[in-house]
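User: Structure please.
Assistant: Input sequence and predicted structure:
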Amino acid sequence: MKKQSIIFSLLCLIITTTNAQKNLLGFKSSEKEIKNEQAFDAQLSAKRVGENIKLLSSVPHHVGSVGGKMVASEIAKVFKEAGWDTKIETYQLMFPTPLTRTLEISGATNYKAKLKETPLKEDATSNQVDQLPTYNCWSADGDVTANLVFVNYGLPEDYETLAKYGIDVKGKIVIAKYGRSWRGIKPKVAQEHGAIGCLIYSDPADDGYGAGDAYPIGAFKNDQTVQRGSIMDMVIYPGDPTTPNIASLEGAPRVDHHDAKNLLKIPVLPISYGDASPLLKDMAGPVAPREWGGGLPFTYHIGPSSSMVHLKLAFDWKIRPGLDVIATIKGSEFPDQWVIRGNHHDGWVNGAADPISGMAAELEEAIAIGGLLKQGWKPKRTLVYCAWDAEEPGLMGSTEWVENHAAELQAKAVAYINSDGNGRGFLGAEGSHAFAPLITEISKTVIDPQTGVSVFERSKASRATTAATPSAKKEAFESTEYPLGAMGSGSDYSSFIQHLGVPSLNIGYGGEDEGGEYHSIYDSYDMYKRFKDPTFAYGVTLAQTTGRVVMRLADADALQFDFTELHKTVKGYINELMNNVNQLREKASVENELINNKAYVYAADAKEKLKTPELLAEVPYIDFTPVLNALAKLEKAANHLEASKKAADLNKLATINAKIYSAEQQLLTTAGLPRRPWFKHSLYAPGFYTGYGVKTVPGVREAIEQKNWAETNEQMAEVAKAIDRLSVYLEAL
């Protein structure tokens, strides 16, 4: 056993605590709930998880495909057999697929890209005829020829580096590495800088032989593996780009896709590092900075290329049916309070890991809940289990369903619990921070199948062993709360929380399931069984975790919202922002002092003086008082509500419950975020240049990052108003 593994195991043993519970959060008496959860657990089957992953990943099943219809039908069958009232809701979705894909280089180097992944005898489904070819969905049609420029990961700061070298990408095609940000950010930034085309590849240093053995020997990318994926600018709005803000039903009015505000205007294509190698090897110009280098066996240059690159793409822009499977069990006492659970079912190809591993766990929950129904249990609140279509192209199935049922959801949805892909490893959870105590409590009752300790304890041990400093290790080791993350984007929770203000959670396991199969033909049952979760035990673990969330919310005497935790978290965000402003002010002061003292000139090489930079604009005083005052009111209101809940009888709790789940809607702003009004939540949103990555208090944070001080003050006022609304709402409960 490796030394690190021994230390990790010892830490797990040291911090193991008893699983004995006091009364569960939200329950006057916990005995019945604990027995129901034990009966639920007893019906979960790792064997059946594996069988469902094998069945549902047996064929390609992208939106609108024959395989997609089969998968939706099989999922509906499982729900029906388990006793759920089941239907399929169909939405008419724009979904472009490739007609023409050409990439070639000519001149000093002559090469035509293969643009095809290699079928393997070790992977039984890697040669099926209905597989989507390698492409980036929502690329523009285009036929462009130009020199190529290497832009590292294609982030805004990489273009700042290019400018220092005097290299402009205007009129050029760029090539960027996958990683460090969501894929759609790379062509977005390239287009903003005037590029006429964009290529994206996975460098072997990041996701190939530099990371581990290549598939099929190991789990990482071989030289022909390609990551497909959407490049829709989802930070503007997700869903069908031709029906913004309305459901894509038959006959719905549509904008032309050329005019959609969340679609780019340049052709974009993902390629393998096998196809990227001749292009990068042809690069002339300066040697790339050391930190830009990769794992290919030659020196990386920035370009422009010696030869000309020709990129030609054309797509079939068709409307195709998206099939959302919706299964319901009506609540016995509060039928108009809905606990909603979802996972998507569509894949780019066979999708065993993404998304079927998570979908199989959701089906296990549905089967076990069906078993409880046969034993006489009935949920107090209505359960709604969803299997979304068309998540991969841009969260379309869930977004269109939310837009179609928006008013009803804002009136009835207690919570939305999401999962996506799942694998071996550690608990990952993010969501509405009023749910933080609930996730902490549940994580202490679910046992990790590899170590035999709770998933809370294993997660804590991991944080302690990987922390960068002694103080961080001590803090992780002594933690008694699970560190619930904030929600960005990239999965089906986005429209629930960020558009409607429905309290949401996103839960999954991973960290010991690394590999390069993502969105490729190798995301298969064979790959999953070998490298992701060989015994399918973590499918059961996910079902136990999300199943507990569903059941406790469904049957709670007092819904488990704790706004004292939300207050504490938001106060931390505001402190971060205050520190950010102070750091910017200090940086400007130091830089301007250097400029005034001509330090840059004196530090230049004797052969050539540097041009003295322009003085940086001073950072003005930013008044955080309105938000701090609002937080003080929220703290008082949240504490008062917690005291009221503890003293309340069941009738009073029912009255509070009927309104408390709508409280998060008070954090929505009417106008939405600047330049993207679809996103209305004042606390959580995907970043404008991070894509999936979250920006907390996004209106204020991004205004500070852009040094837009007028907008900073405007957004500060909006956040303060939102927090004040929440305080007033809680005080009235």
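Residues 78 and 215 are 33 Å apart (CA to CA).
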